[in-house]
Structures are given as C-alpha cells and as structure tokens.
Amino acid sequence: MSKLKDFGFGTQIRKSPFFDATVRWGAKDFSVYNHMYIPRDFGDPEQNFWNLINEAILCDVAVERQVQVKGPDASKFVQMMTPRDLSNMKVGQCKYVILTNQFGGILNDPVMLKVEEDCYWFSLADSDILFWAQGLNANLKYDVDISEPDVSPLQVQGPKSKDIMVEIFGEEILSLKYYWFKRFKLRNINLLISRTGWSSEFGYEIFLLNSNDGDEVYETLMQKGKDLGLHPGHTSTIRRIEGGMLSYHSDMDINTNPFELGLDKFIDLDSSFNFIGKDALINIKESGIRRKQVGLIIECERFNGPNTKKWDIFDGNEKIGHVTSAVYSPRLKQNIALAMVNISYTDINTHLKVKINTNLINAVVTEKPFFDPNKLIAKEKTN
To answer: Are residues 142 and 77 in the same domain?
Structure first.
C-alpha cells in the first residue's frame, strides 16, 4: 500500500466513490477528467499494460459520469441528440454513439445504455453533456427529466476478467453478450454490469448504483480477484492507441466531424429521423472532407511516455497536420500514433516528418488499429 502525497485536492473537483480504495491499493497520482479525479499511476505504465493484456486490471472510471434522460419522450429526445439510428435498441443494450452540435462537430462519444423503455444513460467522455442536454430541452420542451444519477462505473478488463467475474458473480455473468448489460448483486449491493470497457480487451463495466457502497465494492473485487490475476490499475494509453480508440480532447473535439475520424458507420443520414447537426453533416459528406485521421509509425528511439503536445507534421516545408496521440508500444516495439492530416497524405506508406521539439523525425502512414483491427479480443463470446 502506498502513501499518498499532497495533491492539493479541492471541493470543486469531485472524488469518486472508489477514491480511498484506490489509494489503499497503490494509486500514486491522479489527473482530472469530467471535473473528477481519476487514478493515472499505479507504478510502471508498461507493467499496467502487461497486466491488462496478460491478466486483468480493475480501473476506477467513475469519471465516465452518467447523464440520464427519463420520461415519456426519452426515446425521441436521445434520438434527436445523435446521428446513430436507435429505433431497434432494446432494454439491456448498449450502443456507442456520437453526439454532434448544429455544425456537425463532435461534442462527446459516449456509450449509451437503454436502462428502461423510458430511461437512457449516456456514459460520457470528457465534456459537459448534462448542460448541453438540459439547454436543448429548455426550448424543445420534450417530456423528459434530464439529470445525473448516482451511478459510478468500474472496469474489470483483461483475459482473466471472465474467470474473476464468474468467481464473484456466478455463471450468470457468462450470459452477457458484447454491448449488453444485466442487473446483479454483490452481497446486498445493487449493480448493473455490462460487457463493455475502454481498453480494446475482453472485459466488463460494473455500474455502482449507490455511491455509499463504493469502498466495499472496490475492496471486495480486489480481495476476491487478486489470487485470480486481478491487479489495481488504470486505463492504458498504450492499449487504447494500439486499438485505435479515440480520446476526447486528444483525438477529437468540437471542431472535428465524424467523417474525419472514419466513423461513418455510426452516422445514419438516410433515415427519416432528424437530429442536431443533420443538415451540416449532409453538407460535409457531399462536399467531402479536407483532412482525415491516420495511423503513424514514428521512426525514432522509443518514447518515454505518451505525447503531451500535438506535434506538427510536415511534407517538406509544408505543415499538413498534427499528431493527436502517440506512445511506444512494447508489444509492437514501435512508436505508434494517431494523427490528423490533409486528405492528400492519407495513403498507406506515405512518408512524412513529425516535428518533436526542434527535430524532424521520419514517420510513415500505416493501417489502424495497430493491433487486433477487428476487435476480436473484446468481442469474444462467453458461452
């Protein structure tokens, strides 16, 4: 167990219900996401990566704050917020959705859960969608209540997560299909568990429904899981870049549209329903995009951690884009990156230069995701 140093915590930033437990289990540093503290350091990030891909890790992701839309018009309201067709969505199902503004810019890319026929949760990336949703309805006046429920997720991710979850919750957990959820109990604590996660690995998300139970749930999971290969950990930048997973503010923001990221399959422009940004996205698709996200291999000595700046990319003396996320992959033994570049430079094997500090480094455009491109690991069937 580690001794926590002084982080200067304040009342304006929320601690998760699992905060004290993560400190007991070794959290050494935190960052801020969705106005909350999230553990970002349990020691060596490379060891955290190997723990994730070889065994299993428990991550506090309560920062994925939920926005609940509930009421007679809930289905109509959430459909108005996203370009993805939700007409066939069932209770117990999850869907990855893009939320766009009136210009087609991305506001968030949450996983949405249909909790009841008239109740949905958006499990958020890092932006204030509660305010956006409430602002939309100030004039639209749908018959819905929009709030933040007392819901806090944890993630159990990695190849041993299945055996760990069976040990704790029984064989019923194996009935969960990819991107579906069910309700479970841990002792007398009510939970909702889904076959989702932000890791590109096989795993589960455990949604705590009463923040007062957070310490007991985290502690119970670790105590019961540690002998089966469960480690306290944090979301892995290495694995998420390997898997081509997007991070809001890093790889996209309000000035990025879904087509630039290759997210066309989540945008239903031919359906009859209307949504915020539909006209803008139709115009963007008809006009064509001017830039697009690509994968890059950056050919230099291994990076010591992820990039903290968006490095400029050049073709000769012309700046043609920037790196959004970059890290060294110990599995691939390469520096890998996601980048946004001019559409003329997106062909595989295009050679470019990345400016890191004052140095121009060779880079080459490559396929992404860099590992398991069809996400067969995460989609593995459980029975």
So the answer is: yes
The reported pLDDT for the residue numbered 5 is 56
The ranges of the chain with pLDDT < 50 are: 1-2
Last residue in a domain, options 90, 124, 147? 147
Number of domains in the chain: 3
Predicted pLDDT of residue 8: 66
Q: Do residues 234 and 102 share a domain?
A: no
Instruction: Say what the pLDDT of residue 344 is.
Output: 98
The pLDDT assigned to 10 comes to 77
Q: By the 8 A CB rule, do 348 and 366 touch? A: yes
Strands 203-208 and 99-100, bridge-based pairing: unpaired
Give the global pTM: 0.95
What is the predicted pLDDT for the residue at 1? 43
* Whether residue 129 sits in one domain with residue 71: yes
Q: Are residues 182 and 313 in the same domain?
A: no
Same domain for 186 and 312, yes or no, is no
Give the residue numbers spanning the domain of 202.
Answer: 19-65+150-241
Q: What is the pLDDT of residue 11?
A: 83
